Every structure is written in structure tokens, then in C-alpha cells.
């Protein structure tokens, strides 16, 4: 059955091809010349045509147009049509451009075309000049090995009687075509060609020509081709022409705008070139490259370069002379020379070692901090005797808001040096310290070379903020790169990757700031001289607010001193209830809030002076954050310890309680670190071993489960200095006796009861003064550090030094 079907299809294909060939023969035989010598078209159009799909738009009758066919099948069909006497083919638009040729992918109406001339022909393509004649509908379509063939029915153009309506429509089309010609002159050639071959009086042909002239969508044009009624076709074409006019107008408008911009740019370019030529002739200006080189050579006259730097600059200038400005290498070389010649090689500001002047500047800018000022003045005094202070790296360590950055500015002012600050916090790329190599696009020197450019002298004060927050990543370790910069033995020949010549940083005074030393690598810390800023007590904060913070806040908020006064009792209430931290940043923010309150009052019409008293503070700032009662509760098992944090000194309320239980046990809470947990275990073991000695029930721990807690559980805590405090809390809980009022203590406890020294004495004493404790217990080994504290910190304090825990017990429970 299959073979029979294939045979039938093959016979059918042969029949169609035979019909096509016989049609051509019959047509050729029937072509006769009339008396006028013209051939009647209706007599020569074949009923069977080879079909060639068109993409992306259809052809229209009456149009002479060049066509290019590619693809083996299309080329073969076109050549076959050329070889026939009629030279005709069917041209039908494909429905989907991307789909292959098939009967289902063709529209049912197309145009018959006659090949007028073969323009070019080869194996891959054929170029033809085709005259499109009439519309046809496909009656039967078949696909053979040679391609698509169809039996067609023609829709001949009929001559319409000219009536006023059709004439009006024709004139409308002609009017639209005239407008198109005015907007786009390219259309005029096509109209001339059409007039040479057709008459404007034929509305059908005119409509087809107008549709073919537009840039409409292929499917829309196919819809017009399939509209056989001339009147309806004219309506559709007029709509299409209106759209084409709008598009052409918009295109013309855009083209004019672009031309105007281009013309303006060209005009400006020509005028600038003429100006350059005129200036060059008059000797007023030289070429860009020459002027750049002269600029670099002029800079070099004021610099004292090292031999290596001088050699590198000379070689680069010679290289720049040979490079064309249009070359990419030109900008690389010019930028490199720009950096080399703009650095302050050998430029030094004259240092001022006047000790009295330096003291006045430090006292003017900062209140208190006597020990810090003395260290800085000693530092300047050494520079006075030595003649310079090269090779010095200071590190100011203290909690936020104590004035570390402003002290660096004061040092620069005291020495009469330029000051530059940049932050190292979060820096993770080694290239930010030592620069990028010039082989990279957008390469730049490191932060230190950039700082030297901005400072404009070779001996500025460079402040390295947040040196304790330098990071590390796969891009390198900036902290390790800092070792070369901050080493006096190496930084005289600091070699930035971008410059690739040594630059002397030995005259720079480096001042680093940090909140803590724990995160600074030991080799880096070893290169710096550490100066600690512990923080401020209440009296110091009062003076700082009066001298600096309030005048600054008044100026920043547009207020006058005569408009608002903050009384001393109000300032005390603010410091004690809202700003107990070591620095003054929170205090400054509270004062700003008061100023904003005053600004609001005056903006709403108030005219009398505002005086802020202690009673007004809570109204303006809200409820106090700190209260005295919560710190000094006299409860058995609660003892105040002293701690050091990166924010300065602080107090900890350590609490102990016990629950009756058949099984003894010990639990610690409060997010304690490993060292602090070990201190609590030591305190528990020591107290359990000496219960009878301190007058407690020796079997207490056998009958109770003990719980030790350090409040502020969300805050991590660690360190050994709470050992004596924990032991005291346990004894107070067991005996039911509270410790004496306003007592604070600190010290590391051993299993044998020894009290070992701790750190941060000054910060802890400041915390004691800040919250109003009167009695303090310190390890005996810390006596020297306490005695070196300023008098205003030591006064009004009863300090006891303990060598053994028994000394602590006597003071805490009032038995001394």
C-alpha cells in the first residue's frame, strides 16, 4: 500500500510539472502580436506557476523591482522560470519568516512576476529584475522535489469608470505621496519610475504603488494585497500612508536634532583648532605634549629628588617625547609623571619646638588629660634637643569620644606641621597601602603616597584612624604592609608599587588611634609608642561641655548665647543620667537635642530666654537611662565589680543566689567568656574550701544549688579581674550579710586566696568616680599605678589594697 501511495504522489507531481511545461508551450504558441504590436497579457499568463516564498514583505502588481533569491531550491526554481518562454513565477509571502518553506506556511494570494533581466547569477544566488503583473489565488498547491508548484486563478485589474469619489480618493493618495516626497526626497525617484510605466488615473495601480512605497509591516501589506475591492483597498492604504507620514516627520525631526548637535560640535571643534593655530603662531600657546613636559620640568625645579627618582623621571620624560598623544600609552606615562612630580620631594615645613606654645595649644583644644599632654610635651622636648622628631609613631588608645583625633590635630598645630587624616578601619586590600602596579587599568598609588600629595610637605602629621580595625582578605594583609610604613628603619626607602621608586617617609610623624590593643598585631604594636586616654569623670565633662560643646552647639543650631542657658545642675543631671560613657559624644548629642528643642521654641514665636534647669532635663530628654538606686542596692549576694571595656571603665553588678537541693551544683549565666567562667569556678572552689573560716555553714554547698549571674546578659564579658567580686558575692549570699555601701572592687583571685594585679586601673577609677562609689578595693600590686593617677581622681576615695582575699573580706563586710 505504501509503495502504491508513493507512486500516486510521484505521478501527481509529474502531472503538475507537465502542466507547467505544457502551459508555457501553449502560452508561447498563443502569443500573437496585434496590429499595434502589443501582446495581450490575459493571453499569456500560465495557469500553473512555480511558487517562490517571499520574506519579509509581499510584492504588488504593477511594480518593477529587483529581487535576490538564495537557497538551492529557490535558485533552481528562479532559473527554471528564466529558462521558460513566459519567464514567469509566483511570488507569495510566507506566514512565518523563520519557518521553512511548506504549503502550510504560505498565504493564499500572491503576485505573478515576469523576469525582465538576470542581473547576476551563480550557484548560491540569483539577482533578477522582476515585473509584477497580476494578483492570483492559489487553487491547488503541491510540493515536489524541485519545489512548490501551484495551480492559480488570476484576479485581473479591471478598468474602473472614473467617478468623483474615486478621483477624490486618488487625489488624497497623490497628496500624501507629495508630502512624503517633501519630507524624504528618496521617494521621488520611485514615483518617477512608476509614472514612466503606469498612469495616475488608475486608482488600483496607484493604490498598489503607494502601499509598496511604505515601510509597513509584511502582514499588514499582505492584508492590503488580499483586498480585491479597490475602494476598500484605498481606505487601508490611506491609513497606512498617514502612519508613514508621521514616522517620516519624526525621523526628520530626530535627524535635524542630531545634525544640529553634530554641527555645533564640529563648529566648536573647528573654532578651537583655529584658536590653537592662532595662539601657536603668536607664541601664546604650545602643543599639548610640549606644555605638559614643560609643566613637569617646572615642578622639578622646586624639588630635591633622590638619584633613583631623578633617573626614573628623566627616562619617562624622554619616553613621553616619543609617544604620540593619541596613543593609549601616552596617558599612562603622563599620569605617572604627574604623580612623580607632584609629590613633595625634599619639601619640609619648619618645626616649632616651643614648649610653652605647644602647652597653650593643647590646653586650648582639650580640657584635662594632663598625663597625655605631658607625654606629648615630653615628646616635643626631645625633638627640640635632637633637632627633629623623625622615626616617631604614636598610638593613642582609648574609648570612643575621648578626643583621640582632635589631639592629633593639636599636635600638628603645636609643631606647625600640615595635618592629614585617613581611616584604616575595614581596609582589606594590601594595594590600598602599597598601591597598584602600573600595568593595571586605573592604577593609583597607595593611601600613604596620596596623603603625601595632599599634605604638600614631606614632614606632615599623618593620622591613621582605627588602626585596630584593619582587616585581611584574599587580596592581602594590610596590617603586614603597614609594618614597612611604620618602621623607622625601613620607611626612609618606602617603595610604592605604582611609583616603583623609593620615597622617604622617615620625616613623617605618624599618629595612630585605636579603641583597644588586642586586635593590633604584635609586630605592628611593637613599632608604636602607646599613649592611653582613659576617659573623663563628671567634673571634667562639666568643663568640656561648658568650654567646648555648648558654644559649638549654639553655633551649629543658629542660636545666640543670650537666648539659652543650661545651668550647672542640669548639666550634672545630663551627665549622670544620660551620658556615663568614658567619652563625651553622648553628652554632645544630648546637648544638641536641647538646642533643637530651643530652636523649635523660638521658631514658634517664643522671645524670652530659655533657662534649662535640672527639672527641665527629664521633660526635654525623656526618662534617665541610669539611676543611682539600681547601682547601690544593699542586697545580700550582690556586689559591685569594676571592669575595663573598649568603651572605657565600667561597673558590673554580680549577683549570687542558692536553691535548696539534695545535689549540689554551680551555674553561671550572663554570657561570660571562658576566662571569666574559670574565675567563677576558682571563686566557688575557694569559698567552698574556706566556709568555716568565714563563719558560714561548712555543709552549705552540699545542700544547695548555687547560681551566679552577671547582669546585661546580652553583652559578652570576659577577663580574670572579677574573681574577688564573685567570691565576695558568694560569701554575702551564704552569710546573708550585704557588703558596705558604695563599695567597688577588682582583682584576680587564686585558689589559695592570693589577689593578683589587674589592668586598666585608671579607667576603672574613672568609672568609680563617675557613678559615685566611695570605697574601692584594688590588688596591692596596683598601688603604684593608683598613686600615679591625678589628684582629682584620687580625692574623696577610700582605697584599700589587698594582698590576700582575707584583706578583701575585712573591708567588704566592715570588719577592718
The DSSP helix count reads 29
Helix content: 40-55%
User: Which percent band covers the strand fraction?
Assistant: 15-25%
- Structural class, from secondary structure content? alpha/beta
Outline the biggest β-sheet.
5 strands, mixed, barrel
Q: Compute the separation of the termini in Å.
A: 125 Å
Radius of gyration: 49 Å
Total number of strands: 24
Q: Judging from the principal axes of the Cα atoms, what is the shape?
A: elongated
- In terms of per-residue confidence, which ranges show pLDDT below 50 for 5 or more consecutive residues? 1-9, 12-16, 24-43
What is the residue-averaged pLDDT? Answer: 82
Strand order in the largest sheet: 1-3-4-5-6
